[in-house]
Every structure is written in C-alpha cells, then in structure tokens.
Amino acid sequence: MSQAAAATPESAASHPARPPARAENRAAVRIGALAVGEGLPVAVIGGGDARWLSLRAGHGRRSAGEAIAEARAGWRGPLLVEPFSAADLDAVAAGADGVLVGAAWMQDFQLVRAAAGLGLPMVVQRGPAATLDEWLAIIDYCVAEGNDQVVLCESGSRTHGSAAVLDLALMRAAGERSGRPVLAALGHDAALAGAAVAAGADGLLLAPDALPGAVAAATEAATVLATLVRQEVPRTVAGARAAIDRVDAALATVLERRATLAGTVQRLKPVGGFAGRDMERERRLVAAMAHRAPRLGESRLAPVMNAVIEAGLHLAEEERSWA
Ligand SMILES: O=C(O)C(=O)C[C@]1(C(=O)O)C=C[C@@H](O)C=C1
Q1: CA nearest to 29, candidates 133, 180, 240
Q2: Pocket test for ligand 1, best of 284, 313, 315 (most atoms within 8 A of CB)
Q3: Residue 91 pLDDT more than 50?
Q4: Coiled coil where (predicted)?
Q5: Nearest atom (ligand 1) to Cα of 266
Q6: Predicted TM-score (pTM) of this structure
C-alpha cells in the first residue's frame, strides 16, 4: 500500500469485505437444459431460464395433458409442472422436465412419493408452517423412491393471516444442511430478488403470470447483483467468459451511473468540464480504489480511471448544460 493510499480519508482502514464464499457447484440439479446450483448465474424460473405450470390452479378441472401441451406449445425450454393429484402424474411424466411440489401439499407424503417415483427432478416448496426439519425430511421420501434430484424452494410462512413472509435465513440454512440447491419463491414481486441472491439462492421462482417488469428485475438481480455479492470460480474458458460477461454487465451499470454523477459535479462546480479538472481529487480516488483492487494497484488503476473520467467529461461537454 502506498503512503498516499494510507493517508486517503475515503479509504477503508481494513481490507474490503470479500463476497461470502459459499459452497458453489455443490449438487447441481438439471431441469431439462437448466442446471440449478452450478454457481452463477442464478436461475430465473418463471422467467427466461425455465417456466412452470400449476395444475392446482385449475383445481383439477383441466386435463393435465392438455394444459401441459398448451404450455409446451408456447415454450420450448425447461418446464416444471405442479400436479393436482396422482391422476396427473402420467401426463407430467410425459411432458414435464421436473415436478414442483407446491407448499400446499409438501406434506402429502403419498403424492410426494408417487411424484418422486417418476424420476424427474423435484422442486420442493416449504409448507407455510413447516419447520426446517420437516422440509428436509421430504428429501428422504424422494431418495427412498430412488430420486436424488431435489431442489428446495422457500416460499414463505403465513403470519397472522397475511401474505407469506419469505424466510431467507431458513432458505440459506436449508441449502447448507442439505447440500442441495435452493430457490426463493418471489411470487409476482421481485423486490426481494436481490436479497435472495445475496442470501445464496441458486434460483428465483416467479409466479407463472409475473409481469415483465418483475421478470426483468429478477433477471437483473440474478445477473448484475449476483456478480457483486457472490464469488465464482469457473474452470473452463466458456465458463470464465460467461463470468466475465456478468462482471462486465455490472461494470457497465456502474460506469453509466458514475458518468451521470460526474455530469452532476460538472454542473454544480464553479468551473466544470476539462477546464475545471482537479488532478488531486483524481489521485485520491485512485488511491482509495487501490484498497479494493490491491493487485491492480494505483499504477494500473490510474490510466483506467483517467479514461473513465475523460469519457465522463466528454459526455458532460456534449450534454453541456452547465456552461
Ligand atoms: O470531483 C470533481 O471535481 C469532478 O469533476 C468529477 C471528476 C470525476 O469524474 O470523478 C472529474 C473530473 C475531475 O478532475 C475530478 C473528478
């Protein structure tokens, strides 16, 4: 660390916090072409990565075969299906890539066993009053049927008759204790997508009819935020490039935001733009950044930040309203 960096007030005294190291790549479960639990990216089910269909929604009045065929007609990717009863299981086996065990019937052991017997991957939602032990016990029912492909999905507890409250600590504990991938069921609202990703969700489950805005917000959290809060260790060129693409997505988001803020400073300063350049301020911000990027260090960061700052100043001059 240089003396200048040590003297910089913006810089933290201690080392920057590392994203939590979580047991990535632990026991990935494949749902069709989608691998859940293989690290990043976090899967968005009910979004671009996979769809799901609930036969419960129709209370068994609709033919399972027809409903699955209809879902398949509009979607070629991975499809999860939640059966209404054992009568649906043949159609599920024929047309689905995985079975969703809904929160309402997590403890219908007969149906869970029969569904597990299909051999398809199982996504097991936690019943609204189920404890962690009761939830994890469902894995044993599946394994007893010879089905080891289990993903756990936290879908919330009911408190005082209100909407379900997602328990992200429980989701995390379920992942750690079981060594299985975990999902967070967000319903129609992606407001907790970032929190779920930070808490270690391997995937987000949105309602089948979630609006595009919610899908976009969940996808953004799964891509951009996940990169900032989770570590990944790719082992192939393709994997490393995919990881770089995610980092670049985060970098672009941050660069755009920085350019906007730099433009604000130009408008507010007595002398803005290149004419008002403050090299001492630039030196100090590079020194502060070197704390978070110690291997790059000040000497490598300085030209990068010079380019970033100059791009911001050019943009501000183009959009000149401060002059
Ligand atoms: O902080 C300022 O005074 C700015 O104008 C912003 C900014 C920057 O982009 O960070 C740009 C030019 C200055 O030389 C220093 C910093």
Answers
A1: 180
A2: 313
A3: yes
A4: none
A5: 5
A6: 0.84
The one-letter amino acid at 153: C
Q: Where are the beta strands (DSSP E) in the chain?
A: 29-31, 34-36, 43-45, 51-54, 79-82, 98-101, 122-125, 150-154, 157-158, 164-165, 182-187, 203-206
Tell whether ligand 1 has an atom less than 6 A from the beta carbon of residue 265: yes
* Class (C level, CATH) for 29-230: alpha beta
Mutate to test the pocket of ligand 1, among 254, 255, 281 (most ligand atoms within 8 A of CB): 281
Contact 152, 181 (CB under 8 A): yes
pLDDT digits (tens, 9 = 90+) for 297-323: 999 999 999 999 999 999 999 998 544
CA 168, 231, 24, 22 dihedral sign is: negative
How many angstroms separate the alpha carbon of residue 125 from the centre of ligand 1?
50
The answer to whether 4 touches 69, Cβ cutoff 8 Å, is no
Alpha carbon 57 to its chain's center: 26
